[in-house]
Amino acid sequence: MTEKTLPKAIPPASFGARKWLTRETALPWITTPLLLVILLAIWHFYVRGTGISSFILPAPSAVWDSWMDMLSSSRAWRHTWTTVYVTLMGFGWALVIGVGLGVVLGRTRWLELTLNPFIVATQVIPKVALLPLFVVWFGFGATSKIIVAAVLAFFPILTNTVLGVKSVDAGHRDVMTSLNATRWQIFRRLELPSSLPYILTGMEIGIVLAIIGAIVGEYLGGNAGLGFMLVSKMNGYETDGLFAVIIQMTLLGFIFYFATGALRRFTIPWHQSVEIK
Amino acid sequence: MSNPPKAAPAIGLRAIEKWFGTRDQPVHALAPTDLQVPAGELLVLLGPSGCGKTTLLRMMGGLLEPTGGDLTIEDRALWKDGARQGETLSELGMVFQDANLFPWLTIEENIALPLELKGVGKAERLARAHELTKLVGITGFEKRWPKELSGGMRQRAAIARALSYDPKILLMDEPFGALDAMTRDQMNLELQRIWQETKKTIVLVTHSISEAVFLADRIVLLSPRPGRIDTIVDVPMARPRSLDVQATPEFQTIARTLRHRLNEIS
Protein backbone atom coordinates (compact mmCIF):
# COMPACT_ATOMS: atom_id res chain seq x y z
CA MET A 1 0.00 0.00 0.00
CA THR A 2 2.83 2.39 0.74
CA GLU A 3 4.25 1.85 -2.74
CA LYS A 4 1.20 3.44 -4.24
CA THR A 5 1.74 6.71 -2.45
CA LEU A 6 5.36 7.00 -3.61
CA PRO A 7 5.98 9.61 -6.32
CA LYS A 8 6.65 8.17 -9.76
CA ALA A 9 9.92 10.09 -10.16
CA ILE A 10 11.87 7.78 -7.84
CA PRO A 11 14.32 5.70 -9.90
CA PRO A 12 13.51 1.96 -10.14
CA ALA A 13 16.50 0.77 -8.08
CA SER A 14 15.73 2.76 -4.96
CA PHE A 15 12.04 2.09 -5.45
CA GLY A 16 12.78 -1.61 -5.22
CA ALA A 17 14.94 -1.24 -2.14
CA ARG A 18 12.33 0.90 -0.48
CA LYS A 19 9.63 -1.64 -1.22
CA TRP A 20 11.79 -4.44 0.17
CA LEU A 21 12.60 -2.50 3.31
CA THR A 22 9.01 -1.64 4.06
CA ARG A 23 8.21 -5.29 4.36
CA GLU A 24 8.10 -6.22 8.01
CA THR A 25 9.51 -9.64 7.26
CA ALA A 26 12.74 -8.17 5.92
CA LEU A 27 13.61 -6.31 9.11
CA PRO A 28 14.97 -9.22 11.21
CA TRP A 29 17.27 -10.24 8.35
CA ILE A 30 19.15 -6.98 8.85
CA THR A 31 18.84 -6.38 12.56
CA THR A 32 19.70 -9.90 13.72
CA PRO A 33 23.18 -10.09 12.11
CA LEU A 34 23.83 -6.48 13.08
CA LEU A 35 23.05 -7.08 16.75
CA LEU A 36 25.13 -10.27 16.69
CA VAL A 37 28.13 -8.40 15.31
CA ILE A 38 27.77 -5.67 17.94
CA LEU A 39 27.52 -8.22 20.76
CA LEU A 40 30.56 -10.13 19.48
CA ALA A 41 32.53 -6.88 19.19
CA ILE A 42 31.72 -5.89 22.78
CA TRP A 43 32.69 -9.37 23.96
CA HIS A 44 35.94 -9.29 21.97
CA PHE A 45 37.07 -5.89 23.17
CA TYR A 46 36.06 -6.61 26.74
CA VAL A 47 38.24 -9.74 26.83
CA ARG A 48 41.09 -7.86 25.11
CA GLY A 49 40.83 -4.77 27.33
CA THR A 50 40.48 -6.44 30.73
CA GLY A 51 42.79 -9.41 30.07
CA ILE A 52 40.27 -11.63 31.84
CA SER A 53 41.32 -15.26 32.29
CA SER A 54 40.17 -17.55 29.50
CA PHE A 55 38.89 -19.97 32.16
CA ILE A 56 36.29 -17.37 33.09
CA LEU A 57 35.52 -15.89 29.67
CA PRO A 58 37.33 -17.04 26.53
CA ALA A 59 37.53 -14.70 23.53
CA PRO A 60 34.93 -15.14 20.78
CA SER A 61 37.67 -16.30 18.42
CA ALA A 62 38.67 -19.08 20.86
CA VAL A 63 35.04 -20.15 21.15
CA TRP A 64 34.78 -20.15 17.36
CA ASP A 65 37.89 -22.33 17.03
CA SER A 66 36.60 -24.70 19.66
CA TRP A 67 33.22 -24.94 17.92
CA MET A 68 34.93 -25.61 14.58
CA ASP A 69 36.97 -28.38 16.23
CA MET A 70 33.75 -29.78 17.58
CA LEU A 71 32.09 -29.76 14.17
CA SER A 72 34.98 -31.74 12.72
CA SER A 73 34.99 -34.32 15.49
CA SER A 74 32.88 -37.42 14.94
CA ARG A 75 32.55 -37.88 18.69
CA ALA A 76 30.82 -34.52 19.05
CA TRP A 77 28.46 -35.38 16.22
CA ARG A 78 27.62 -38.68 17.88
CA HIS A 79 26.67 -36.76 21.03
CA THR A 80 24.64 -34.31 18.96
CA TRP A 81 22.71 -37.13 17.28
CA THR A 82 22.05 -38.72 20.65
CA THR A 83 20.42 -35.51 21.84
CA VAL A 84 18.44 -35.19 18.59
CA TYR A 85 17.26 -38.77 18.97
CA VAL A 86 16.26 -38.36 22.62
CA THR A 87 14.48 -35.07 21.89
CA LEU A 88 12.52 -36.41 18.92
CA MET A 89 11.59 -39.66 20.64
CA GLY A 90 10.43 -37.83 23.77
CA PHE A 91 8.57 -35.29 21.69
CA GLY A 92 6.98 -38.03 19.58
CA TRP A 93 5.63 -39.85 22.62
CA ALA A 94 4.39 -36.58 24.13
CA LEU A 95 2.64 -35.79 20.85
CA VAL A 96 0.91 -39.14 20.51
CA ILE A 97 -0.20 -39.35 24.14
CA GLY A 98 -0.91 -35.60 24.49
CA VAL A 99 -3.09 -35.38 21.38
CA GLY A 100 -4.78 -38.73 22.03
CA LEU A 101 -5.63 -37.95 25.63
CA GLY A 102 -6.42 -34.33 24.77
CA VAL A 103 -9.06 -35.35 22.23
CA VAL A 104 -10.70 -37.71 24.72
CA LEU A 105 -10.64 -35.16 27.57
CA GLY A 106 -11.82 -32.33 25.33
CA ARG A 107 -14.88 -34.38 24.42
CA THR A 108 -15.64 -35.91 27.80
CA ARG A 109 -16.29 -33.33 30.46
CA TRP A 110 -16.60 -35.72 33.41
CA LEU A 111 -13.34 -37.44 32.53
CA GLU A 112 -11.58 -34.09 32.29
CA LEU A 113 -12.88 -33.12 35.73
CA THR A 114 -11.83 -36.49 37.15
CA LEU A 115 -8.31 -36.53 35.74
CA ASN A 116 -7.54 -32.83 35.98
CA PRO A 117 -6.11 -32.87 39.56
CA PHE A 118 -3.73 -35.66 38.58
CA ILE A 119 -2.62 -33.94 35.40
CA VAL A 120 -1.98 -30.74 37.32
CA ALA A 121 -0.09 -32.76 39.95
CA THR A 122 2.25 -34.16 37.31
CA GLN A 123 2.98 -30.59 36.31
CA VAL A 124 3.56 -29.26 39.78
CA ILE A 125 6.18 -31.92 40.58
CA PRO A 126 9.57 -30.64 39.48
CA LYS A 127 10.01 -33.21 36.74
CA VAL A 128 13.76 -33.04 36.81
CA ALA A 129 13.52 -34.41 40.35
CA LEU A 130 11.95 -37.53 38.89
CA LEU A 131 15.02 -38.26 36.80
CA PRO A 132 16.88 -40.28 39.46
CA LEU A 133 13.78 -42.45 39.71
CA PHE A 134 13.71 -42.96 35.96
CA VAL A 135 17.41 -43.81 36.03
CA VAL A 136 16.75 -46.41 38.73
CA TRP A 137 13.94 -47.88 36.68
CA PHE A 138 15.28 -47.59 33.15
CA GLY A 139 19.06 -47.27 33.56
CA PHE A 140 21.56 -44.70 32.34
CA GLY A 141 20.69 -45.22 28.66
CA ALA A 142 18.49 -43.14 26.41
CA THR A 143 15.16 -44.39 27.80
CA SER A 144 15.25 -42.43 31.06
CA LYS A 145 16.04 -39.20 29.15
CA ILE A 146 13.36 -39.83 26.56
CA ILE A 147 10.86 -40.10 29.39
CA VAL A 148 12.00 -36.81 30.95
CA ALA A 149 11.74 -35.07 27.55
CA ALA A 150 8.30 -36.60 26.97
CA VAL A 151 6.98 -35.65 30.41
CA LEU A 152 8.09 -32.04 29.90
CA ALA A 153 6.66 -31.71 26.38
CA PHE A 154 3.44 -33.53 27.19
CA PHE A 155 1.61 -30.87 29.19
CA PRO A 156 1.45 -27.98 26.70
CA ILE A 157 0.46 -30.39 23.94
CA LEU A 158 -2.30 -31.87 26.08
CA THR A 159 -3.77 -28.58 27.31
CA ASN A 160 -3.71 -27.04 23.84
CA THR A 161 -5.39 -30.09 22.32
CA VAL A 162 -8.14 -30.02 24.96
CA LEU A 163 -8.65 -26.32 24.26
CA GLY A 164 -8.72 -26.99 20.51
CA VAL A 165 -11.32 -29.74 20.73
CA LYS A 166 -13.47 -27.60 23.02
CA SER A 167 -13.23 -24.66 20.61
CA VAL A 168 -14.80 -26.54 17.71
CA ASP A 169 -17.48 -24.23 16.31
CA ALA A 170 -21.04 -25.22 17.28
CA GLY A 171 -22.24 -24.30 13.79
CA HIS A 172 -19.68 -26.64 12.26
CA ARG A 173 -20.93 -29.41 14.54
CA ASP A 174 -24.50 -28.71 13.35
CA VAL A 175 -23.33 -29.17 9.77
CA MET A 176 -21.81 -32.56 10.56
CA THR A 177 -24.90 -33.62 12.57
CA SER A 178 -27.28 -32.62 9.80
CA LEU A 179 -25.14 -34.65 7.40
CA ASN A 180 -25.47 -37.67 9.68
CA ALA A 181 -21.68 -37.96 10.03
CA THR A 182 -20.31 -40.85 12.08
CA ARG A 183 -18.25 -40.21 15.23
CA TRP A 184 -15.09 -41.09 13.34
CA GLN A 185 -15.98 -38.72 10.47
CA ILE A 186 -16.65 -35.93 12.96
CA PHE A 187 -13.24 -36.53 14.50
CA ARG A 188 -11.35 -36.90 11.22
CA ARG A 189 -13.06 -34.20 9.16
CA LEU A 190 -13.96 -31.65 11.86
CA GLU A 191 -12.39 -31.99 15.29
CA LEU A 192 -8.88 -32.82 14.15
CA PRO A 193 -8.45 -30.09 11.48
CA SER A 194 -10.24 -27.58 13.69
CA SER A 195 -7.89 -28.32 16.62
CA LEU A 196 -4.76 -28.39 14.47
CA PRO A 197 -3.80 -24.71 15.02
CA TYR A 198 -4.02 -25.30 18.79
CA ILE A 199 -2.09 -28.57 18.59
CA LEU A 200 0.66 -26.85 16.58
CA THR A 201 0.92 -24.14 19.23
CA GLY A 202 1.31 -26.89 21.82
CA MET A 203 3.95 -28.52 19.64
CA GLU A 204 5.94 -25.30 19.32
CA ILE A 205 6.14 -25.02 23.12
CA GLY A 206 6.55 -28.78 23.53
CA ILE A 207 9.55 -29.17 21.22
CA VAL A 208 11.54 -26.56 23.16
CA LEU A 209 10.68 -28.27 26.44
CA ALA A 210 11.65 -31.64 24.96
CA ILE A 211 15.14 -30.33 24.17
CA ILE A 212 15.47 -28.97 27.69
CA GLY A 213 14.33 -32.32 29.08
CA ALA A 214 16.81 -34.23 26.94
CA ILE A 215 19.76 -32.02 27.83
CA VAL A 216 19.00 -31.84 31.54
CA GLY A 217 18.51 -35.61 31.54
CA GLU A 218 21.88 -36.18 29.91
CA TYR A 219 23.47 -33.61 32.18
CA LEU A 220 22.27 -35.25 35.38
CA GLY A 221 22.52 -38.91 34.60
CA GLY A 222 24.00 -39.74 31.25
CA ASN A 223 26.97 -41.03 29.39
CA ALA A 224 26.12 -39.60 25.97
CA GLY A 225 24.55 -36.51 24.36
CA LEU A 226 25.21 -32.80 24.42
CA GLY A 227 24.19 -32.54 28.09
CA PHE A 228 26.85 -35.12 28.96
CA MET A 229 29.37 -33.26 26.79
CA LEU A 230 28.64 -30.11 28.76
CA VAL A 231 29.50 -31.88 32.00
CA SER A 232 32.76 -33.29 30.64
CA LYS A 233 33.82 -29.87 29.30
CA MET A 234 33.08 -28.37 32.70
CA ASN A 235 35.05 -31.07 34.47
CA GLY A 236 37.96 -30.47 32.08
CA TYR A 237 37.84 -26.68 32.68
CA GLU A 238 37.41 -26.15 28.94
CA THR A 239 35.34 -22.99 29.06
CA ASP A 240 35.65 -22.38 25.31
CA GLY A 241 34.37 -25.93 24.77
CA LEU A 242 31.45 -25.18 27.09
CA PHE A 243 30.53 -22.24 24.91
CA ALA A 244 30.84 -24.38 21.80
CA VAL A 245 28.41 -26.97 23.20
CA ILE A 246 25.98 -24.19 24.15
CA ILE A 247 26.14 -22.87 20.58
CA GLN A 248 25.43 -26.34 19.27
CA MET A 249 22.43 -26.68 21.60
CA THR A 250 21.08 -23.28 20.63
CA LEU A 251 21.30 -24.09 16.94
CA LEU A 252 19.55 -27.36 17.56
CA GLY A 253 16.77 -25.52 19.38
CA PHE A 254 16.40 -23.06 16.52
CA ILE A 255 16.18 -25.83 13.94
CA PHE A 256 13.50 -27.72 15.88
CA TYR A 257 11.53 -24.58 16.61
CA PHE A 258 11.53 -23.39 13.02
CA ALA A 259 10.71 -26.87 11.78
CA THR A 260 7.48 -26.82 13.80
CA GLY A 261 6.84 -23.29 12.52
CA ALA A 262 7.27 -24.54 8.95
CA LEU A 263 4.89 -27.36 9.78
CA ARG A 264 2.28 -24.69 10.58
CA ARG A 265 2.60 -23.10 7.15
CA PHE A 266 2.53 -26.49 5.52
CA THR A 267 -0.39 -28.07 7.39
CA ILE A 268 -2.73 -25.15 8.05
CA PRO A 269 -2.30 -22.64 5.20
CA TRP A 270 -5.95 -21.68 5.71
CA HIS A 271 -5.49 -20.40 9.26
CA GLN A 272 -5.15 -16.72 10.15
CA SER A 273 -1.88 -17.44 11.96
CA VAL A 274 -0.42 -18.07 8.50
CA GLU A 275 -0.31 -14.90 6.44
CA ILE A 276 -2.04 -14.99 3.11
CA LYS A 277 0.21 -14.02 0.23
CA MET B 1 -54.61 -26.74 6.66
CA SER B 2 -58.34 -26.57 5.99
CA ASN B 3 -57.84 -28.48 2.74
CA PRO B 4 -55.17 -31.16 3.27
CA PRO B 5 -53.05 -31.96 0.18
CA LYS B 6 -53.78 -35.19 -1.66
CA ALA B 7 -50.22 -36.50 -2.02
CA ALA B 8 -48.04 -37.18 1.02
CA PRO B 9 -46.57 -33.90 2.26
CA ALA B 10 -42.81 -33.29 2.04
CA ILE B 11 -42.88 -32.52 5.75
CA GLY B 12 -45.62 -33.57 8.13
CA LEU B 13 -45.86 -32.43 11.74
CA ARG B 14 -48.46 -33.86 14.09
CA ALA B 15 -48.68 -32.43 17.59
CA ILE B 16 -44.95 -31.71 17.56
CA GLU B 17 -43.82 -29.97 20.73
CA LYS B 18 -40.59 -29.10 22.49
CA TRP B 19 -39.68 -28.56 26.12
CA PHE B 20 -36.31 -27.24 27.22
CA GLY B 21 -34.68 -26.78 30.58
CA THR B 22 -34.68 -28.73 33.81
CA ARG B 23 -37.44 -30.55 35.62
CA ASP B 24 -37.72 -27.64 38.06
CA GLN B 25 -37.73 -24.92 35.43
CA PRO B 26 -39.15 -26.33 32.23
CA VAL B 27 -39.52 -23.98 29.26
CA HIS B 28 -42.23 -24.68 26.74
CA ALA B 29 -40.41 -23.70 23.52
CA LEU B 30 -43.07 -24.97 21.18
CA ALA B 31 -46.68 -25.92 22.01
CA PRO B 32 -48.11 -28.95 20.15
CA THR B 33 -48.09 -27.94 16.53
CA ASP B 34 -49.62 -29.38 13.37
CA LEU B 35 -48.26 -28.39 9.98
CA GLN B 36 -48.01 -29.93 6.53
CA VAL B 37 -45.60 -28.70 3.91
CA PRO B 38 -46.57 -29.92 0.43
CA ALA B 39 -43.80 -30.90 -1.97
CA GLY B 40 -42.37 -27.99 -3.96
CA GLU B 41 -43.67 -25.31 -1.61
CA LEU B 42 -41.61 -22.36 -0.39
CA LEU B 43 -42.80 -21.96 3.18
CA VAL B 44 -41.58 -19.18 5.42
CA LEU B 45 -41.63 -19.31 9.22
CA LEU B 46 -41.91 -15.76 10.53
CA GLY B 47 -42.06 -14.49 14.06
CA PRO B 48 -40.48 -12.45 16.85
CA SER B 49 -37.54 -13.89 18.76
CA GLY B 50 -38.52 -16.61 21.20
CA CYS B 51 -41.45 -17.77 19.07
CA GLY B 52 -39.85 -21.16 18.47
CA LYS B 53 -39.32 -20.79 14.73
CA THR B 54 -35.69 -21.87 14.86
CA THR B 55 -36.59 -24.67 17.31
CA LEU B 56 -39.21 -25.87 14.83
CA LEU B 57 -36.78 -25.77 11.93
CA ARG B 58 -34.04 -27.55 13.89
CA MET B 59 -36.52 -30.29 14.76
CA MET B 60 -37.41 -30.66 11.07
CA GLY B 61 -33.67 -30.91 10.34
CA GLY B 62 -33.06 -33.60 12.92
CA LEU B 63 -30.79 -31.38 15.06
CA LEU B 64 -33.29 -31.41 17.94
CA GLU B 65 -35.47 -34.28 19.03
CA PRO B 66 -39.12 -33.31 19.59
CA THR B 67 -40.40 -33.88 23.12
CA GLY B 68 -43.66 -35.18 21.68
CA GLY B 69 -45.57 -35.73 18.45
CA ASP B 70 -44.91 -37.26 15.05
CA LEU B 71 -42.51 -35.82 12.49
CA THR B 72 -42.41 -37.31 9.00
CA ILE B 73 -40.21 -36.43 6.06
CA GLU B 74 -41.51 -37.76 2.73
CA ASP B 75 -43.88 -39.94 4.76
CA ARG B 76 -41.07 -41.53 6.75
CA ALA B 77 -40.41 -40.98 10.45
CA LEU B 78 -37.34 -38.85 11.18
CA TRP B 79 -36.91 -40.25 14.69
CA LYS B 80 -37.33 -43.81 15.86
CA ASP B 81 -36.73 -44.65 19.53
CA GLY B 82 -34.58 -41.58 20.04
CA ALA B 83 -32.36 -42.30 17.03
CA ARG B 84 -32.21 -40.14 13.91
CA GLN B 85 -32.96 -42.09 10.77
CA GLY B 86 -30.03 -41.50 8.45
CA GLU B 87 -31.93 -42.37 5.30
CA THR B 88 -34.70 -39.92 6.10
CA LEU B 89 -32.11 -37.31 7.00
CA SER B 90 -30.55 -37.48 3.54
CA GLU B 91 -33.76 -35.98 2.10
CA LEU B 92 -32.89 -32.79 4.01
CA GLY B 93 -30.30 -30.11 3.31
CA MET B 94 -29.64 -27.41 5.91
CA VAL B 95 -28.41 -23.85 5.52
CA PHE B 96 -27.63 -21.81 8.62
CA GLN B 97 -27.33 -18.11 9.40
CA ASP B 98 -23.56 -18.43 9.28
CA ALA B 99 -22.31 -20.16 6.17
CA ASN B 100 -20.44 -22.58 8.48
CA LEU B 101 -17.98 -23.48 5.75
CA PHE B 102 -14.93 -25.34 7.07
CA PRO B 103 -12.01 -22.88 6.82
CA TRP B 104 -9.53 -25.70 6.13
CA LEU B 105 -11.35 -26.82 3.00
CA THR B 106 -11.47 -24.96 -0.30
CA ILE B 107 -14.85 -23.92 -1.65
CA GLU B 108 -15.15 -26.98 -3.89
CA GLU B 109 -14.10 -29.28 -1.07
CA ASN B 110 -16.67 -27.66 1.22
CA ILE B 111 -19.42 -28.14 -1.35
CA ALA B 112 -18.35 -31.74 -1.92
CA LEU B 113 -18.02 -32.56 1.82
CA PRO B 114 -21.46 -34.19 2.19
CA LEU B 115 -20.69 -36.44 -0.80
CA GLU B 116 -17.31 -37.30 0.68
CA LEU B 117 -19.00 -38.35 3.93
CA LYS B 118 -21.33 -40.54 1.87
CA GLY B 119 -18.35 -42.21 0.18
CA VAL B 120 -18.68 -40.70 -3.31
CA GLY B 121 -15.41 -40.82 -5.30
CA LYS B 122 -13.28 -37.71 -5.66
CA ALA B 123 -13.73 -37.08 -9.40
CA GLU B 124 -17.47 -37.51 -9.20
CA ARG B 125 -17.97 -35.29 -6.17
CA LEU B 126 -15.78 -32.51 -7.55
CA ALA B 127 -17.67 -32.63 -10.84
CA ARG B 128 -20.88 -32.23 -8.85
CA ALA B 129 -19.34 -29.33 -6.90
CA HIS B 130 -18.47 -27.53 -10.13
CA GLU B 131 -21.99 -28.06 -11.42
CA LEU B 132 -23.30 -26.44 -8.24
CA THR B 133 -20.94 -23.47 -8.28
CA LYS B 134 -22.51 -22.71 -11.65
CA LEU B 135 -26.02 -23.02 -10.22
CA VAL B 136 -25.37 -20.71 -7.27
CA GLY B 137 -23.22 -18.30 -9.29
CA ILE B 138 -19.73 -18.66 -7.80
CA THR B 139 -17.82 -20.22 -10.69
CA GLY B 140 -14.14 -19.36 -10.61
CA PHE B 141 -13.93 -19.55 -6.81
CA GLU B 142 -13.68 -23.34 -6.55
CA LYS B 143 -10.06 -23.38 -5.34
CA ARG B 144 -10.33 -20.44 -2.94
CA TRP B 145 -10.42 -20.57 0.85
CA PRO B 146 -13.71 -19.48 2.46
CA LYS B 147 -11.98 -16.48 4.08
CA GLU B 148 -11.28 -15.10 0.60
CA LEU B 149 -14.99 -14.83 -0.23
CA SER B 150 -17.56 -12.18 0.74
CA GLY B 151 -20.41 -13.05 3.09
CA GLY B 152 -22.92 -13.38 0.26
CA MET B 153 -20.65 -15.66 -1.73
CA ARG B 154 -19.98 -17.83 1.31
CA GLN B 155 -23.72 -18.21 1.80
CA ARG B 156 -24.05 -19.23 -1.87
CA ALA B 157 -21.41 -21.90 -1.27
CA ALA B 158 -23.35 -23.06 1.81
CA ILE B 159 -26.49 -23.43 -0.32
CA ALA B 160 -24.48 -25.39 -2.89
CA ARG B 161 -23.19 -27.67 -0.12
CA ALA B 162 -26.75 -28.32 1.09
CA LEU B 163 -27.80 -29.16 -2.48
CA SER B 164 -24.79 -31.40 -3.20
CA TYR B 165 -26.52 -34.71 -2.44
CA ASP B 166 -29.74 -33.54 -4.10
CA PRO B 167 -32.08 -33.63 -1.09
CA LYS B 168 -35.76 -33.01 -1.78
CA ILE B 169 -36.05 -30.45 1.00
CA LEU B 170 -33.98 -27.40 1.89
CA LEU B 171 -34.24 -26.04 5.46
CA MET B 172 -32.87 -22.53 5.89
CA ASP B 173 -32.39 -20.83 9.27
CA GLU B 174 -32.23 -17.06 8.68
CA PRO B 175 -29.81 -17.70 5.83
CA PHE B 176 -29.41 -14.07 4.84
CA GLY B 177 -29.77 -12.52 8.30
CA ALA B 178 -26.08 -11.61 8.52
CA LEU B 179 -25.89 -9.96 5.09
CA ASP B 180 -26.25 -6.28 4.22
CA ALA B 181 -29.57 -5.12 2.75
CA MET B 182 -28.43 -4.97 -0.85
CA THR B 183 -26.76 -8.38 -0.84
CA ARG B 184 -29.82 -9.72 0.92
CA ASP B 185 -32.16 -8.55 -1.89
CA GLN B 186 -29.82 -10.13 -4.40
CA MET B 187 -29.75 -13.40 -2.49
CA ASN B 188 -33.55 -13.44 -2.27
CA LEU B 189 -33.75 -13.18 -6.07
CA GLU B 190 -31.11 -15.89 -6.41
CA LEU B 191 -32.90 -18.19 -3.98
CA GLN B 192 -36.14 -17.79 -5.93
CA ARG B 193 -34.30 -18.70 -9.13
CA ILE B 194 -32.54 -21.71 -7.56
CA TRP B 195 -35.84 -22.87 -6.05
CA GLN B 196 -37.57 -22.64 -9.44
CA GLU B 197 -34.71 -24.42 -11.22
CA THR B 198 -34.33 -27.24 -8.71
CA LYS B 199 -38.02 -27.59 -7.68
CA LYS B 200 -37.06 -28.22 -4.05
CA THR B 201 -39.35 -27.87 -1.08
CA ILE B 202 -37.97 -25.00 1.00
CA VAL B 203 -38.71 -24.04 4.60
CA LEU B 204 -37.07 -20.76 5.50
CA VAL B 205 -36.93 -19.00 8.87
CA THR B 206 -36.72 -15.22 8.94
CA HIS B 207 -37.65 -12.23 11.07
CA SER B 208 -37.84 -9.93 8.05
CA ILE B 209 -41.40 -9.29 6.88
CA SER B 210 -40.39 -8.11 3.40
CA GLU B 211 -38.14 -11.15 2.87
CA ALA B 212 -41.01 -13.40 3.96
CA VAL B 213 -43.55 -11.82 1.62
CA PHE B 214 -41.11 -11.67 -1.28
CA LEU B 215 -40.13 -15.34 -1.08
CA ALA B 216 -43.07 -17.25 0.33
CA ASP B 217 -45.91 -19.26 -1.13
CA ARG B 218 -47.20 -19.42 2.42
CA ILE B 219 -46.14 -17.62 5.57
CA VAL B 220 -46.53 -19.26 8.96
CA LEU B 221 -46.62 -16.58 11.63
CA LEU B 222 -45.58 -17.84 15.05
CA SER B 223 -46.17 -16.20 18.42
CA PRO B 224 -44.08 -16.60 21.57
CA ARG B 225 -44.49 -18.02 25.11
CA PRO B 226 -45.04 -20.77 24.30
CA GLY B 227 -44.12 -20.85 20.62
CA ARG B 228 -47.17 -21.74 18.52
CA ILE B 229 -48.68 -21.07 15.10
CA ASP B 230 -50.64 -17.84 15.16
CA THR B 231 -51.79 -17.39 11.57
CA ILE B 232 -51.00 -18.81 8.16
CA VAL B 233 -50.99 -16.33 5.29
CA ASP B 234 -51.06 -17.23 1.60
CA VAL B 235 -48.98 -15.13 -0.77
CA PRO B 236 -50.62 -15.62 -4.17
CA MET B 237 -48.35 -13.28 -6.16
CA ALA B 238 -47.11 -14.49 -9.56
CA ARG B 239 -43.60 -15.85 -10.13
CA PRO B 240 -40.88 -15.15 -10.86
CA ARG B 241 -41.17 -12.09 -8.66
CA SER B 242 -38.86 -9.16 -9.28
CA LEU B 243 -37.71 -6.82 -6.51
CA ASP B 244 -40.26 -4.32 -7.87
CA VAL B 245 -43.01 -6.49 -6.48
CA GLN B 246 -42.33 -4.82 -3.14
CA ALA B 247 -43.93 -1.63 -4.48
CA THR B 248 -47.23 -3.29 -5.44
CA PRO B 249 -50.35 -2.77 -3.30
CA GLU B 250 -50.77 -6.51 -2.98
CA PHE B 251 -47.33 -6.91 -1.43
CA GLN B 252 -47.86 -3.98 0.89
CA THR B 253 -51.27 -5.17 2.05
CA ILE B 254 -49.83 -8.52 3.08
CA ALA B 255 -46.82 -6.90 4.70
CA ARG B 256 -49.04 -4.47 6.62
CA THR B 257 -51.33 -7.23 7.87
CA LEU B 258 -48.31 -9.19 9.07
CA ARG B 259 -46.73 -6.19 10.74
CA HIS B 260 -49.92 -5.37 12.67
CA ARG B 261 -50.33 -8.92 13.82
CA LEU B 262 -46.65 -9.11 14.82
CA ASN B 263 -47.02 -5.97 16.93
CA GLU B 264 -50.01 -7.48 18.69
CA ILE B 265 -48.35 -10.76 19.58
CA SER B 266 -44.81 -9.77 20.52
Structural class of chain B: alpha/beta
Number of E-state strands of chain B: 12
Helix-and-strand structural type of chain A: mainly alpha
List the chains of the largest interface with their residue counts. A-B, 21 and 25 residues
- Overall average pLDDT of chain A: 85
Any idea of the CATH class of the largest domain in chain A?
Answer: Mainly Alpha
Low-confidence stretches of chain A: 1-18
- Tell me the fraction of residues in β-strands of chain A, as a range: under 5%
Radius of gyration of chain A: 24 Å
Which bin fits the share of residues in helices of chain B?
A: 25-40%
Q: What is the name of the CATH topology of the largest domain in chain A?
A: MetI-like fold
Shape of chain A: globular
**What pattern of helices and strands is seen along the backbone of chain B?**
EEEHEEEEHEHHHEHEHEEH
Oligomer: heterodimer
How many individual helices of chain B? Answer: 8
Q: Roughly how many Å apart are the termini of chain A?
A: 14 Å
Biggest sheet architecture of chain A: none
Helix-strand pattern of chain A: HHHHHHHHHHHH
Q: Whole-number radius of gyration of chain B?
A: 18 Å
Count of DSSP H/I helices of chain A: 12
Overall pLDDT of chain B? 88
Question: Secondary-structure blueprint of this entry?
Answer:
The complex is a heterodimer of chains A (277) and B (266).
Chain A: H1 2-5, H2 12-22, H3 27-50, H4 60-71, H5 74-107, H6 109-124, H7 131-138, H8 142-166, H9 170-178, H10 183-221, H11 226-235, H12 239-267
Helix pairs in contact in A: 4-12, 5-6, 5-8, 5-10, 5-11, 7-8, 8-10, 10-11, 10-12, 11-12
Chain B: E1 11-21, E2 26-37, E3 42-46, H1 53-60, E4 68-73, E5 76-77, E6 79-80, E7 83-84, H2 86-89, E8 92-95, H3 107-117, H4 122-136, H5 151-163, E9 169-173, H6 181-198, E10 201-206, H7 209-215, E11 218-223, E12 228-234, H8 249-265
Parallel strand pairs in B: 3-10, 3-11, 8-9, 9-10
Antiparallel strand pairs in B: 1-2, 1-4, 4-5, 6-7, 11-12
Helix pairs in contact in B: 3-4, 3-5, 4-5, 7-8
